[in-house]
């Protein structure tokens, strides 16, 4: 038995970008996951309580730094689901 995964990226008429994951196993079972992509990573990091300003208050963090801090916080506070085989 083999499984088939298809990933489609699409832009809606409203300008939103989506990733659609289509999974089909060998028994013809189908499942779909749809993800809406964001325009600004910093907005998502702020949603998780990450400040754009460095602790010393002198310079702002860039997007990569904010995302790294967000991932650290999510893992530290177990705010995610980890799927293991």
Summarize it.
The chain is α+β, with helices and mostly antiparallel strands and 85 residues long. The protein is built from 2 helices and 3 strands, in the order E-E-E-H-H. It has a 3-stranded antiparallel sheet with strand order 1-2-3, with no helix packed on it.
Please characterize this protein's 3D structure.
With 85 residues, the protein is an alpha+beta fold. 25% of the residues lie in helices and 27% in strands. It has two helices and three strands; from the N terminus they run βββαα. The chain has helices at 41-47, 63-76; strands at residues 4-11, 17-24, 30-36. It has a three-stranded antiparallel β-sheet, with no helix packed on it. The chain is elongated and about 55 Å long.
